[in-house]
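Notes to self after the call with IL:
- keep both proteins in one doc
- input above output, always
- annotate only the second one for now

Protein 1:
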Amino acid sequence: MQLLADGRLHVGAASKVFRIDNSELVDLLAGDYAPLEDELFRPLHMALAANGDLWVAEGHRLLRLGQGASQTYPYLAAAVLVAPDQSVWIRAWDGVADSGCCFYHLDDEAVSAYHLDDPLPVPPELAAQIQALRP
């Protein structure tokens, strides 16, 4: 359960993402967002982009639930953050227990990886938000 950038509470449960609107539970995959065809997922963490895309860290992958189209990305994503420039940061893991692993930065141009203890090439305020994705 998360309060996202639109000021509304979002809930992820067993292949579903819901938003609470005026005390009503709204199934986003049945309305606002294109569903993932016959796919099961377990939402762990969510972030909302300015364009309305909902990013979902799902453990075994990263999902972008868009208005009209959805995509999956092959990252073992545990947490996600949409930066002010609308690029996406995720905390991921490499499949090795207790390794913690890394942050990935996805933008229109490339994907960059940073170890959890590496300095991040962003302003201090954003670096603090990214570091807050750590367990």
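Protein 2 (the one to annotate):
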Amino acid sequence: MEFSSNPLMSKKRPALRQCTRRNFSLMILVSALVLPMIMSVSALSCGWWGDGEDDDGDAIVIGADGRPVSETRPGGDQPGDKAKGNLAPPGVEVPAPRSGYGMVIQPNGHAVPYLDAIGGQPVYSIQQLRQSGFPAVVDLGTSPEVSALHRQETEMLGMKYFNIPIREKNIAKADVLQLNAILAAKENLPILVFSASANQLGEMWALYRLLKGANQDDAVMDGRRFGLTKKSVHLTYE
């Protein structure tokens, strides 16, 4: 016995195939539009300063006042910070899950420890830093690959982002000149200068002071306020 095909169903099959193709194309289009948005939100929520990128997985310690508690780590985390018992100067360590150190260059050109600059305000993230009136941030010692992510997050918030990667073991004169150019633009101030190493932070400021005409003793003294451990600094690395 032969069964004849339904003429109505035969007419519907091409229309169904066309509809399926349209739906599939629509799904691809939606994915192309939504996926970058999801990735951008993920990058923003990750946080690069003060609110994320916790390498060692330590939990944030919360004090009685409900704010994060800073734990001073002897010597810092970088090769230049290995002197045992060398505590970071008061106010320099940023209270955050990830160890870091900061100084703020004020509009008058003076540098102060980060915690002194914020005056006890609960500023523990890059978002809060923007809300507190900081137009820019300098990221010291971060590789170009990582700094690309940091730049994206910072600029999404309307802030300027400057990276000084410091490619050599010693801070080069070119690195100090780059900082000098950043600080010369008054619209960038006040500005946070951030580093994973207190020693690196202090050395950069000492070299900057040397560049601006300070003598060796005064430059080293200024650098020690932010974590410098060296007995002398020199602008000899090109």
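Annotation: Residues 79-224 form a domain with the Protein-Tyrosine Phosphatase; Chain A fold (CATH 3.90.190.10). The helical segments are 7-46, 114-118, 126-131, 144-156, 173-184, 198-211, 216-224.
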